[in-house]
Structures are given as structure tokens and as C-alpha cells.
Amino acid sequence: MKKFWEKHDLVKIAGIMVLFMVLLTWIIPQGYWSGTELVVTEVTRVGIFDFFTYGLLGMYYFTVLITFLFVLGGFYQVLGKTGGYQKLTDQIAKKLKGKEIIFTLVVSFIIAALAAVINDYFVIIAFLPFIVTILSKMKLDKITGLTTTFGSVLVGIIGSVYSAKIVGINVSKLGLEYDAHLWVKLVLFATSFIIFSVFNVLHLRKNLKVKKADQINDTFVSEEVTKKTKIWPVVTIFVSFIVISILAYLPWESVFKVDIFTTATEWIREVKILEAPVFSYILGSLETLAAFGKWDLFGIQALMILATLILKFVYKINWNDYLTSFGEGLKKSGKIVVLMLIIYNILEFTAMFPIIPTIIDWLMSLLSKFNVILATVAGLITSLFSVEYEYTVQLMGRYFITTYADFTTQFPILLQATYGLAMFFTPASFVLMMGLSYLEISYKDWFKYIWKFLVAMFVVIVILMLIIF
């Protein structure tokens, strides 16, 4: 049993977090905000049937994430089946020998910058296995692999500038403008990236001098490469996949006020041949044929499936091998899907049994006047359990901007910063836990690496909040 938990320590950590949340519902009464007043009800405990019912409901509520992870696994397994993918990543890794630090910094910045502006940062995760494959062939260590990829997504989250999943929530739920306190968001992004990169470079330099055994194991290497293997089909398809994905999920109209994609999509729908909207029939209905900038997470899944089908025909993979490879990819994603469902149980119990408002009200009442440090801690506590930023705002956002009406534009920034910081270490951070699982890193090893960054960023956040409040 001890060996089992050592191997599956992330499941254990996430499970403990779920049980801790359940335990709190047996002790702390629920609370909700009515205007500026906290209404405390009675203690409503999570019972046995509640526990398993909400656990099963997670598969219903978060189906899009489950299918995304499964399709992602199938996509890369089929890619790995093509010798072109292996040959491409081999050549890239070979050319980057001796340039490890520059490569990791450039890639880290690109990922973080995309995460800060793209509508859904889960889209960026679709590109990360490709980067991990290159890093593994460069024989870099697992922590470097995590910081360069999934860790950089977290940098983009804490320093989010326009992302719909962060800033968009502040706009829709708390009435903030996209450009409000833009300089603070840019400072958050810059400082978090610089501090994060300093630790990353120091760690990488140390590991380049002394080779360790904890090198990255690439999950999707499965096909031998021959001299006759063609690279150009994989390059063409994969680059097209990346470009279309980025274009499809940037906030063109809502933020940049660019409506060319909406106009073009409407024109395509309306084009008629012999009085029939042929392109609309071929490409899909109004609901599925969305303009760039308005895609949901199902869109990129359809794109990945289409890409695997093109690869199948270009590389002449028979249907049996294609389906077998795709199935193997689904199987490899199974561990992460199970972990995801456990993590999102934390969110379900947090949202359905709202004890967090009661805790935060008690904390903020410790002092008679508003205190920035207490508010920062309150934001951190809320984010420890909320998994997604939308629920951090749902639990505490309205309370903060109504109770402290003089700071209505500042609190959304505080919540974004504290949520972003929490995602670097809480077991409720799915991006983090997915990265740890994928790269086979224990939570303990990650915390030993990241704690200095957490302290530094907490100080930065407090200073910034003292300036703007």
C-alpha cells in the first residue's frame, strides 16, 4: 500500500483535499452574500450519498474537459505513430544542443504570453506534449520540463491581460473594463515571468553540469525513424493546427475590436449556389461553425480528430493501426482524467456547500478597518478550493466590491493575482496537477522547488495591492 501511494501521490494529495473540504462542511455553517450582508445558515454536511452523487455528477458537468483530455491523448499517439513526428522532434532537439537555456526561456515566454491573452488556456495545453517531446530528446530534467510548459501557463494565468477565463470573468461578473489597471496586470506578468525564469535558469544550469537520473520520459515516442520518412506532412499539418488554434481562440472582437472573422464567417454561411447555402451545409450549422475568437473547447477537439485523419491517409496508416493508436492514447489519458475528476470534486463541494464565505467574513472581521494583507490572504484561501477562477469570483467577488465599495476596480485585480499564485501550489490547480502527472513529478519535489517563488510573488502582490488600494 505504501508503494501504491508513493506511485500515485497526486491522487492521494487531491483526495486529501477533497476529504478536508468535506470535513469542513461538518464544522462550518454555510454562508452567502445578500448585498453587503453575510447570511449564515446552518451546518449542512456532505453525507455519503452526497459524496458519491457529486463525484459522479463531475463527469456530467465537466464532460468537455474529459473529452478534451481523451482526444488529446489520441491525437499525440497517432502523431507518435508517424515517423515524421519523431524525425522532426529529433532534428529540432539536435539543433538546439547547447542552447537549452535560450530555448526554454523563449518557449516559456511564448506560452506565458499566449496564456495571458487567449480565451481558453486549456487550448495551449494541446501544444505542450510537442514541447515535452523536444525537451525529453534534449535530455533535460522533469522539473525543467514542467516549468517550461505547464508552469509557464500558470505564469500567464497570474499575469493574465485579456484571457476570457480570467479577465473576461472580471468583466462579465464584476463590471471591470478589459483595460482597467492594465499596468498592474503587465507588472504582474513581467515580475512573475522574470522571477519564475530566474529559478528555472538556475535549476537548469545546475542540472546541465551534473546529469541526474530524473530526465523526462516522453509518453508518445513509439515509431522508429528511417531515412525515407517524410517530415513535411507532419510539419504542414502541425503548424496549421497551431496557427488555426491560436487564431480561433484569440479575443478578436471582444478585446481587439476586430470583426473580420465574424464578417467572413457570416459571408461563408450566406454564399449560395443554385439558391442553396452549400458551404453552410458542408461546414456545419450556426452553432458549430463559429467565427475565430468564439470557439469553445469542442472546436479544438474536432480540429485534432481531423488532423489525425489527414495523418492517417498521408502516412498510409491502416485503419486497424490508426484505431489502435488512438485507443492507446485514450488509455494514456485515463490517469489524468481520473485525477481531474477528483480535483473537480473539490470545486463541486466548494460551490454546492459554500462555507468559504463564512470563513472569509470571519477573517476580514478580525480588524475593524479594511486591511490589504488580510484581503490578500482571503483571496488565497478562496482560491485554494475554487479550481477555476470563475468560482473564486462567484464565492467572494461580489462581497468584496460591495462591502468595500471604494475599491470596486481594485478587488478584481487582487482576486486574479491571488488566484494565479494559488494555482502554483494548491492541489486544486488542475493545470499544475496535470503537469505533475504527465511528467511524473511528485508534489513534494515540486513544492521544494517552487516555495521560494511563492514567497517572492506573495511579497510582490502585497506591494502592488498596497499601491493600488
How many beta strands in the DSSP annotation? 2
Q: Helicity range of the residues?
A: 55-70%
Distance between the termini: 51 Å
Strand order of the largest sheet: 1-2
> Number of DSSP helices?
23
What's the gyration radius in Å? 23 Å
Structural class: mainly alpha
Mean pLDDT: 89
Strand content: under 5%
Please indicate the count of domains.
2
Order of helices and strands: HHEEHHHHHHHHHHHHHHHHHHHHH
- List low-confidence stretches: none
The profile of the biggest β sheet is: 2 strands, antiparallel
What gross morphology would you assign? globular
Task: Write a brief caption for the model.
The protein is mainly α.
Structural features, described:
This protein is mainly alpha-helical. It has two domains: 2-251 and 293-468, no CATH class; 252-292, no CATH class. It contains 23 helices and two strands. The protein has helices spanning 2-7, 9-25, 48-61, 63-81, 83-95, 100-117, 122-125, 128-137, 142-148, 150-158, 167-174, 182-209, 232-249, 260-270, 278-283, 297-314, 319-352, 356-364, 372-386, 389-403, 410-422, 430-438, 443-468; strands spanning 31-34, 37-40. A two-stranded antiparallel ribbon has the order 1-2. Helix 10 packs antiparallel against helix 21 (410-422). The protein is globular, with a radius of gyration of 23 Å. 44% of the residues are buried.
